[in-house]
Specification:
Aminopeptidase, 12 strands, 28% strand, alpha+beta, 2 domains, 9 helices
Amino acid sequence: MSAPSGAAAVRPTLGAPKTELEELLQQVRQALAARDEDPTGGWVEESATELVSGAKPGFYLAPSNGGGGITFYARRGDSAFAHLHSEAGLAGARALAQALLEQLPADVASVDLGFSGLSGEAERHLVDELLERPGSLDIAREALERPLTAADGRAPAEPPPGVERVPVRAVTVDALTELDRTAFAGSIDELLLGREPDAHRRSLEALLDNRLGRFLDEASCALLETDPVRLVGAVLCSERSPRRAIVLDLMVDPARRRRGLGRYLLGWALRALWALGYESVVLWASVQNTAALELYRRTGFRTRLAATIYRWERPASVAQPHALR
């Protein structure tokens, strides 16, 4: 892959003018809000401070006439989770991606990179170029949405035989973490979150602490087998707006699948969300997770938008990441 012509304009965010980074981060926030991923609180100001100080590494193209772009990442152990936003089209996005990937520290074993600001065609073109790097793969994701109707209020309230429905906070975070880890082990979704139990714990704690929107205890629950007691399923929901909710996580013990537990959990959540007055519900799913997609489509969900996550894993024999060529 040839070096992008705009590469010289890419600058590190360390020591950059904070106002420029805040302008770019506001663009990121607006793009994420359009797909129901709006960061909460003072994310723009906090992130700009981290980027300027070097607490969070990143690179940017200075905003000009509404253009520019930015990319940055956060570390979790030897994994990095990154985002790239470009208002400067494919050339700007290519330059930012090159800067990010070439400057990854040698002890970063993998990076997951999401995108915003690009057209679907430009994003696909960029990902195809990045896939030339050894150790690359792409993860296709879809946001699915459906309206909530009175029919949802008639969904079965009682769980299947042999299990008991309890409030999700009646279950320990340790138990939820273990269920989440085993439910997604070996799947493409495991790559997005990380294989380490601490990654699942951090994600669940963020959900329960309202850091991904107001957590809806009334529309979240867990399922316990009663003899012996065992956590076998859970669904977690949050508010995205006064009219829209989101199913953040739906997990079922792999040894208890094909018993209607996932279908019950989703139906119960829709029933509760309808009763709470929400008009629609959205969720994200990986295209490779065909079983989950089939369940969601049977339940009336339809694709609202698509996104791609680019993943790079450092080949075991390579000490430094290859430069983009």
